[in-house]
Amino acid sequence: MDIHRCRFVSYPASAINAVAFSHSSFPQSKAKKSKNTQVRLAIGRANGDIEIWNPLGGAWHQELVIPGGKDRSVDGLVWVTEADEETSDGKTILGRSRLFSIGYTAAITEWDLEKAKPKTHASGQHGDIWCFAVQPPLTDKNGVPQPSPRRLVAGTVDGNLVMYSIEDDELRFVRTLIRTPSKNTKMVSIAFQTRNIVVVGCSNSTICVYDIRNGTLQRQMTLGSDHTGGSKNIIVWSVKCLPRGDIVSGDSTGQVCIWDGKTYTQAQRIQSHTQDVLSLAVSADGSQIVSGGMDRRTVLYEPMAGQFGRWSKVFHRRYHSHDVKAMASFEGMGMSVVVSGGPDASPVVFPFRSAGKENHRTLPHLPQKTNLQSAPKARFILSWWGNEIRIWHLLNPARRLLDDAPAGTDIRKNRKLLAQILVKGESNITSAAISEDGTLLVASTATEVKAFQLEYTKPDGVGQLDIKKINLKASGQGATRVDISPDKLWVCWIEEGTKVMVARVSPTTSTTGVEYAISEPTMLCRLRRQIPKNILLGGLGSYDRQVTQVAFSPDSKMLCVADLAGYIDTWIFGPPVDRKSGTGEDGNGELSESSGDSSDEESDRGESERWYLNPRAALFPKLSASPVALTFSPGHHQDDGDYTILAITTSKQVLLFNPIRGALTEWARRNPYTKLPEQFSTTRDLVKGVVWQGPRAWIYGASVLFMIDLSQDLPEVAKDIVKDAHAKGTKRKRNGLEAGAGGKMAKEESLAAQQLRVATGPDGTEWTDVEMADADDQRSIGASSAFDDDDDDDTDGGELQRLRNDQTTNEDDTGKGQGSSKWWHTYQYRPILGIVPLVSTQQVNGGGVGGIMDGTPPLEVAIVERPTWELELPMRYFSNGERER
After folding, report:
1. Which GO biological process categories is it annotated with (predicted)?
2. Distance CA 101, CA 326 (A)
């Protein structure tokens, strides 16, 4: 495999302003029921994006990104989870979860997660909202929430405390509870002490306690003045309430204060930060407190032994490279974690109960669904973020750069920015796709789908790209995903998260050249699924029916989609079969006809040809976990007249299906999950995508690249090793050593990122450890890149070249090398934004550049990395010129 190592496709990751879990920590009385609860983490960013993460017991899957828009920001998030209900037949309807946000405006927004867009907005006659919280529900004597009306209470920049109603699935302004006489007082933070008592941190050195039933001030606590030379007023950036009623506050002096919840007097003041305390989190039983500050510190506190009501600092760490602005905790379902975020854009998960026994984990700042595609035949790379699309051209193949480039050649000149497209409107781009020959581009936002025709010319020997808009008759609903078929005759997009739409692309020849026209789209039905109503009516509803994966077959005659629940639907283009097997339901649960466009534009393929549901679609099993990659193997029909679909799930299962037969392939049956390499099954990074090289699948995550040869069976794993691994896993789970963060790391694993393990030997059962670059070399590479604004492209030789050389030996009569590796992996590239294939002129003409003698076709890819040191972070603030300690 020949590699262009690139960093020129920038992805300006945005600061994290808010984090929130959909459920608070589960009390002991709900421990048994909690395993069936749909827990999600919401992350709000400064560019208006909202990310929905599924903890998955520590796997942390980014399921959804709702893009923001122009001048939008998410600065606060609140989940409202209603009480569970019991049906007459004894089934439980989980309490419905709703997500609300604020963005330093006068409005509160509710989000429709099923359709991945805003549901409603509400505002009143008041200033910008700076903080808000949800009223706790009524509980019985065991602490179990009961059905009861609840309100949102918000604090504003002009010192008002206002109330919003969320009853009957609505959001509306009710009234203003408090009007502060001083217009200079800002309500900065808020928390409920009881169902009717709310605690508000203000910008005037006070903490106010209000009764929301009558809007009266119960008590006002004063922090005094700042340190000598500091600000006149102290800003209370964060307040939290412990279960027994005590109040915890963090302020601009760097102090964490403990207040008695009955007398409202200060019990203790802890100077644990050198700068402002911006965020707080408390454990479910009130035995631990965590604070995050402007000094990058994350500090853990626990009660002092033998001194009731007194707390002490246990330790502090610097997990972040910038301010720790937002923080949320969750305990339950075998997890006990705190998630924090700030301007460095990367969420950090660190253990709560297991603090000091388990490592923290930094989640990727890059999206799970990569914002990157390529037009292999044209050697174009497409990237997008916000409302901007960029198209790059890689001029020369990587092999030519290695072999033919004279000494001193600047390989950065091998790339050229061809075009920048700004998509008009207030919504950011949700998805984009480009055809393999680089002549058709489709992009979508939350409100519309747009198509463009591209024409690459070389006037005066200088390449340039002409762009022309194509009229696309979409429904005006926008899309969450778009894709273009390999033959460039079909465009597919997903409306409202669940509706699969296809439209025919018709090329016509005119005096000015070839022009594209796109017909009116048709909605394809999805197979009816027997989902219990108690699941659809509660929790997150039909949120998990959102389509997250779309793939066309290499010959463009089959379309495959998969949703978060693990259901796979396939359609075939051709003469329709028995229509009884083709009925289904769309994303709204209503029957729809699965037919293609029957206009005259399809006359070249015959009027009887259309998209119809695969008759064997019902035989596809429901995946045990959400798919993170879905793709067809290269080439057309296999030897048995069927396609091959590769699906990889969040649980690291690698599954191969024959869709026409509706069954697993023979390889999948012979190679179950237990035979996968340990490095693949135990890595904490989820798979982001797959690139094919004949039978080889190059599988990549944020910091790992795997190759699995699907033409060979994986080596057998000794039974005692499997048994030992299972025992270790059982013991770890039983002892609770892994609470959803980084896990307990053994000493011998500390160098894993600098090693390769390659399967060798006649049957692939022997292992060879190959050393990577020294740590000093890695640091020097990172240091040089950190100061290079026009970062380096790199072509990879080294271990990949050695692997290529090893694979040209020991060929048998069939032409397949017996010595070729069954699998391979490296941690050399990180963090990976995406990997996209390219096709050189030699490959198109049948040449063997980069080819392998065992019959595997050549492969050239561009690996695009986006290191955190290249992110443009705001300058850090230090008061009084004090340096960081």
Report:
1. maturation of SSU-rRNA from tricistronic rRNA transcript (SSU-rRNA, 5.8S rRNA, LSU-rRNA)
2. 14
Q: Is the dihedral of CA 114, 117, 123, 127 positive or negative?
A: positive
The H or E element spanning position 81 is strand 76-81
* Phi, psi of 666, deg, nearest 5: -65, -35
Query: Which range is least confidently modeled, 181-190, 456-465, 857-866?
Result: 456-465
Distance CA 632, CA 828 (A): 27
Strands 61-66 and 76-81: unpaired
Q: Which letter does DSSP use for residue 414 in this model?
A: G
Other C-beta atoms lying within 10 Å of the C-beta of residue 732: 13
SS3 content of the chain, % helix, strand, coil (to 5): 15, 40, 45
Q: What are phi and psi of 310, to 5 degrees?
A: -105, 145
How is the chain split into domains, by residue range?
2-362
* Residue partners of 812: CB distance under 8 A and separation at least 6: 818
pLDDT score of 422 more than 90: yes
Report the candidate in 645, 643, 714 with the shortest Cα–Cα distance to residue 679.
714
Q: Are 436 and 375 in contact (CB under 8 A)?
A: yes
* SS3 at position 645: strand
Specify the residue for token string 């920590």: 25
Closest of 74, 42, 80 to residue 165, by C-alpha = 80
For residue 342, what is the DSSP state?
A: -
Buried b / exposed e over 742-777, threshold 16 CB at 10 Å, is bbeeeeeeeeeebebbbbbeeebeeeeeeebeeeee
Token pair, residue 430, equals 């949700």
* pLDDT in the model for residue 34: 45
Q: Is the pLDDT of residue 374 over 80?
A: yes
Mean pLDDT (whole number) for 818-830: 81
pTM listed for this prediction: 0.88
The position carrying tokens 């408090």 is: 178
581 versus 658: which is more confidently predicted? 658
Q: What architecture does CATH give domain 2-362?
A: 7 Propeller (2.130)
Which tokens in the block code for residue 330? 């969750």
In the structure encoding, which two tokens stand for residue 639, read together?
Answer: 């030897």
What's the rounded Cα separation, in Å, for the pair 364 and 346? 6
Residue 786 has phi, psi (to 5 degrees) of -65, -25
Least confident segment among 48-52, 407-411, 426-430, 842-846? 842-846
Helix or strand or coil: residue 860? strand
Give the separation between CA 60 and CA 57, rounded to whole angstroms.
8
* pLDDT per position as a tens digit, 535-574: 888 899 999 999 999 999 999 999 999 999 999 999 999 8
Contact in structure between 574 and 582 (CB atoms under 8 Å): no
- pLDDT tens digits, one per residue of 42-63: 999 999 999 999 999 899 999 9
Specify the higher pLDDT residue, 486 or 752.
Answer: 486
Please give the full DSSP string across 521-590, using - where no structure is assigned.
Answer: -EEEPB------HHHHTSTTTTGGG-EEEEEE-TTS-EEEEEETTS-EEEEEEES---GGGG--B-TTS-
